[in-house]
Model the fold of this input.
Amino acid sequence: MMKRVRPTGLVSLLGLATSLASCTDLTSEVAIGTRAHALEATAEQCYLVADIDDEDGEDVLSILDKNNPTQRVVGSLGANAVEAIAFNPGTATLYGADADQLGIIDINSPAFRPLGKRFGRGQGALGTIALRDVDGLSFDPATGLLYGSVRRDDATDLLIIIDRTTGAHVPNGFGQGVGYVEIPAIAGNRDIDDLAIDIDGTMYAIANSGGDNDHLVTIDRATGQTTDIAMIRDGEVALDDIEGLGFDTSGQLWGSSGDGNTLYRIDKNTGQTMAAVAITEGEDFESIDCLIGALPGLGQPDGGPGQPDAGPEEPDAGTGGELGGDDWSVVGGGCSASSRAPGVGPATLVALVLAALALGLARRRRTLWSLILAVAITAGVTTSARAQIASDFTLERFRISLDREGVLDSEWGTTLGHLQWDVGLWLGWANDPLVVVRSMEGGDSRRIGDLVSRRLGGNLVATVGFLSWLQAGLEVPLIVSQGQDIGMSPVGTGGAIAGSGLGDIRVVPKVQLLRSDKHVIDLAIIPAFFVPTSTSEDYFGEGAFSFAPELAVSRALGAVRMAGNLGYRTRNGNVLGDLTVDDEIFWRLGAGYRFADAGGPPFEIDLSLTAATRADEFFQRPNNDHVELIGGLQYLFSEPLLGFAAAGMGLNEGFGTPDWRILVGMRFNGRRSEDRLVVAESPLPPQQAKKPACEPNGWDCDGLLDPPDPRGEEPGIDLCPEVPGLPEHFGCPGPVVTVNEPPCEKLEVSQKLEFDKASATIRPHSLEILRRDIVSVLDDHPDLQVTIEGHTSSEGARGYNVELSKRRARSVQQFLSEQGIAADRLTPVGHGSRFLIINPDTGKEDRDRSRRIEFRITAGGKCPLCEKIDIGRIQFKYNSHQLEAGSKGKLDRLAGLLEKRVAINLRIEGHTSSKGSDEYNRQLSARRANAVRAYLIERGITVGRLTSIGRGEENLKENPDDTPVKREVNRRVEFVITDGGRCDDVAHGPLARDSK
Done:
């Protein structure tokens, strides 16, 4: 069995900070341009670079057949200081060192393309040293590490390890904080001209003094210590200026001379050489490396993944073997999948991006869309290479919950209401969710290839509720882009893997079993199943039906929300190397804090820990044990639209676990409008068909004489000729809304107060209702004392309902006290389900009406609510202060009341929506209020009893008024009683009233 590197199982959250800092991949490969040529080359070829010392000259690349005197000049590299090259046989990539910078040599151009970073400054026993001149390069075929030797003037040279992705040296390549080791002088020589590593892992080098006294030596790769083999000789003649060194497939060591322009075979045991090939094109060949075309386990042409080595006489030599043997393993990209170097890695970047998202979502809504676009553009420039391997299983581990009540990927234990729906979409980037690692000596492992190096994907989720306990959902996985970088893994090479398509569709019914208002917790069962609809076998889907039932439990405690899921998923037993994708047990734990439920902004912060393991080997195989930690933010832009962003990191090496991920998304729901309390509701009767037999001209047959033109502007006796009405109301129906009859026993609120489910936490919009409807009245009437009565429906245990209603009444008392209302004026009482509005309350709507808060006046009840007169909507022509004809009849009714109640004085207030400028709205509202005042004066009301004012958009009823319906509510005229407004004067009048 393969040796394992790190402890298996769950990773302690206490180590999260350390893990975040150390998730930097040392060995991910960048392969550019050399693959096409290298795959056509033979093991008889070597690459050589002629180093032109003239600053204006450019180095020249050649390909030499080492067994035949043939040399082909490819061309200039565009660089003039390439003194070392190294060939990676796993990716067919040729690297070169141009002084202080690593680059990739594209032989098809040809060109030297520098990587992003320079070698940098290294820390070690000699202090901090600038790594400016790399003269030797070599790949270790056993580990895939790239070594370099650094030339120092008048000092001993240094050995470093180079990150092939960035081009920088690995700052901890030789231990914590040790980025280089010194190569001691040997036989009087301190200059190292080139490196070459044999297939058995031995590092050889040329040591000399300024090009003289060349010795073949070995170097300990861990300590830099040297061992002398012999002076390099041709017979008895000592050779100087051997500056290039490299091994071929058979283990033969080759060297190139700088001055002599000759390619030599070198006996690695004695240092003896034989002149092999004269190099005629170019001069000063300081760099050589030969193709290693058939190393066992490195993409052998006659074998393939999992096949025997290339031939019976090719020893394994410790370089690997079958995929899934004792050395190789297919794992996820979690932090334990490879050796790491501390520093600012991808996870740190994730944290910074997450912070930026939080700020952006708070300030600008379009930040969400900008980030989605940026991620999509980034995905469009990825490149990939395909391994000919089994890949018919799904790789994505993340999902979003079926509806917005869930916590990131943790499902909530409730269902949507009847015919309510929720649609969500997320798009995210996952780094290295499936990689290949190789075990190293000492129990460590090193990543040598990426089967999936990057994936841009997401999910589209749609859910609809049926009844009060059932909902159904559909989840469609989307793969936008993915890439592969085989590196030195033993799985072969080939074409590109599929980059985009659909995964297996997930059908997700949900049945609620328990409710927190009765059973403390919410509990639901989710018997989900997957339909084989994937468009590719490249880690898109399982290729067969699978079943994944799970339980979801949740509980909300005020602003704190907690959810947990436990499930089992059937899978098809696909095998890839030592990885078997089989049935799994999975679970998720989520916790969130909803600031809006505590009176704060519409933010929510969430944290989720997800895990999965083989059902038959519970946390026994690291590459089957998935653990990931994800944090996220949600922001409610408006009632239907919710945006969210999240970032996470893998904590274990199970397949599908990325090094890190980042994602953004949105949700849109179709909730029914919230119930509103209308006081003493008395709806208008339905319009009746006109009966010509009514005498005379009785269009609505209410016994009153109608005007000649029912739709004309001049009123007649019947002010409502199209609907039957009452004579005392001038032919109009009775009041739509009436104030409480004397002796004014209650304070009424304009809308129902709402709380979190099974909680005493008042929802934010209800806090605004309390401020507007109750606080203002209690401020204006300091003698008023009220009892705050909490009521519930009959659903649930009686004792629980009484306690819940008490807690809700106390929450209202506490809020009013915080607004400055003395606590001794407020008495909270919980009645539970004792006083139902509808008894029995068998339906959901009936139960919703019974769940309420009432404010009963216990002292000082001087009918303070009679402060406005409501005659219905007063309408004007568009963008004008000219009254519509229908509104004049309403004002006539108001004038009749004022003639009877001579003690009442009114302030006429004009209001607009927020559409348009503030100044224009104020002027328009003032003109409209004045037009109403003028009309009432024309009808005989004394000028001194009426005042008018334009409020503009100062007091919006609906804020924000971002829909036409809400703006229409805000466009209104109000009649405020400034004097003489006693309840017994107003409540029995022919007009409708509302509370302040």
